[in-house]
Amino acid sequence: MELLEGKEKFIQAWGALGSNWGVNRTMAQIHALLLLSPESLSAENIMEELKISRGNANMNIRALIDWRLVYKELKPGERKEYFVAEKDLWEVVKQIIIQRKKKELEPMIKVLDEISSVEGDDIATEEFVKMVREIKLFSSKADSTLDTLVKADSNWFVGTFLKMIR
Amino acid sequence: MELLEGKEKFIQAWGALGSNWGVNRTMAQIHALLLLSPESLSAENIMEELKISRGNANMNIRALIDWRLVYKELKPGERKEYFVAEKDLWEVVKQIIIQRKKKELEPMIKVLDEISSVEGDDIATEEFVKMVREIKLFSSKADSTLDTLVKADSNWFVGTFLKMIR
DNA sequence: CTGTACTTTCAGAAATAAATGAAAGCAAAT
DNA sequence: ATTTGCTTTCATTTATTTCTGAAAGTACAG
Q1: Is A117's CB within 8 Å of B145's CB?
Q2: How many whole angstroms separate alpha carbon A71 and alpha carbon B162?
Q3: CA distance A51 to A57
Q4: Domain ranges of chain B
Q5: Is B9 close to A114, i.e. CB distance below 8 A?
Q6: C6 C1' – A57 CA distance, angstroms?
Q7: What are the pLDDT digits (tens) for B107-135?
Q8: Is the CB of residue A25 less than 8 Å from the CB of residue A11?
Q9: pLDDT tens-digit profile of A125-159?
């Protein structure tokens, strides 16, 4: 296989994967391109390689920076901005967990808290409250487990955990 | 808060959560409704409660069954089909992991295998292959870790794991 | 201050995903 | 063999998300 073909395939695949992970296709493709690129790339470079518009490139680069999956790099003497991907995949996964936990899990827990104060003395209400409490308990556990996971370092994760769990 | 209002809020929140997890909004709402419902519901019931069309209800119930998050229940003497949600949340999470791993992670690993055979003796190719191998290694580790996780039982997970990890 | 080299914004266009509802399928009941 | 009660399909419509490109913004250089 040719290098160019391989690169192309990787970008496609990473894009498809990302689009199921709260990261849109283009965002993931930019990340893929940067992952494969040993040197940093400019917005211009990215637009050309992925054949996307300036606006699209800009918006998604910024989003990647917000997610801390990409960093800005300023070359001395140059006005243009360059970008580098976070290449430590464990760091990438961690960031995604952190972001999505904040955006999804935490609001859910808040709602569960609110609705567990439903009042009424009938069976239906009791059952509802019981279920909600159960879900709340599970979510809280998931939340703290993820916190711990995120604090754990990469080597620990891939090494020790795997052994322990077997 | 009123029972009805609480129910409504939960369905909304679960729908929003689901829509970020490869489960579309309506699918997640149906699941939420069934989670809250101590008895099984018919397609008709679901259509009414969520105010959705027959086709929509049917398609999403089907999908939930495919994901093993909902089961069919046939009441003796009745022609109509009834549905119940999987209520063990750890089971729900497990199913989602299993399905998404199959649909996303495994194809990614396949692509990584393919493209790690890129040929060429220049620096660029070498760097490409190195990066791809690294990603492949990480993905395979994630894959087997998830396998192990899925095999572990709920109590072990929420209990022992949490203690161990601290 | 003015030009230059960039980055950011955003209204509208295009692409994609999801929902509708009527028609077709299916199988138990008569 | 036909009706009846329900499920499934799918072409069309509707909603949502993403992308474009031109215009506006920013800031350094001369």
Answers
A1: no
A2: 33
A3: 9
A4: 3-85, 89-165
A5: yes
A6: 14
A7: 999 999 999 999 989 999 999 999 999 99
A8: no
A9: 999 999 999 999 999 999 999 999 999 876 655 55
